[in-house]
Amino acid sequence: MQPDVSPTHASTILGETRDGELHLQLDEIYSPTGSPWAVPAYRFDVMVGDERAGTISLRVGDNERLVRFAGHVGFGIDEAFRGNRLAGRAVRLLLPLARSHCLQPLWLGCNPENAASIRVMEWLGATYVETVDLPSDYDRYFARGERQKRRYCLEYA
Ligand SMILES: CC(C)(COP(=O)(O)OP(=O)(O)OC[C@H]1O[C@@H](n2cnc3c(N)ncnc32)[C@H](O)[C@@H]1OP(=O)(O)O)[C@@H](O)C(=O)NCCC(=O)NCCS
Predict the structure, then answer these.
(1) 1 in any annotated domain
(2) Which atom of ligand 1 is nearest to the CA of 90?
(3) N or C: which end of the chain has fewer CB within 10 A?
């Protein structure tokens, strides 16, 4: 049986995991009903020392929309902190938690025009699988003018 998505589980798995000054601080847990992906999810602040540099989320599920479009992980780094590969490094910090929820492989998605994100996927060693059209009823992305997603698959130990 998979562990619950809970603060206790996150802290048990991640503990004091750090990459230099970089670490993840749990900000919020989404229940499946409150989650835009219809699955439970963690959202962490990406912290550099005491400063919040961005956010990263881990969506715990394997429904089609996650696997084909949104991906298991979402991230954003504030402009002032970009240029230090924080997004890729934060994904790496999340991998033990992803593993604990049996998210193997990890699916990642990004927009075709998002060159920085594509570099993050490459830096992580994720494999590009295909570019897919978003369904027109996919409100969350379609309404923002997004039309396609590049799909990446990350196998990790
Ligand atoms: C994508 C994002 C998280 C990356 O932030 P970051 O971890 O600070 O990334 P970096 O600035 O260190 O750049 C990572 C790589 O992309 C490259 N890159 C950055 N901006 C780029 C651009 N506009 N065009 C091409 N390459 C770019 C960098 O040179 C670096 O390449 P390297 O690994 O070969 O050195 C950040 O740009 C962001 O928050 N964007 C807005 C939100 C977003 O797009 N989220 C992702 C949704 S999938």
Answers:
(1) no
(2) 7
(3) N
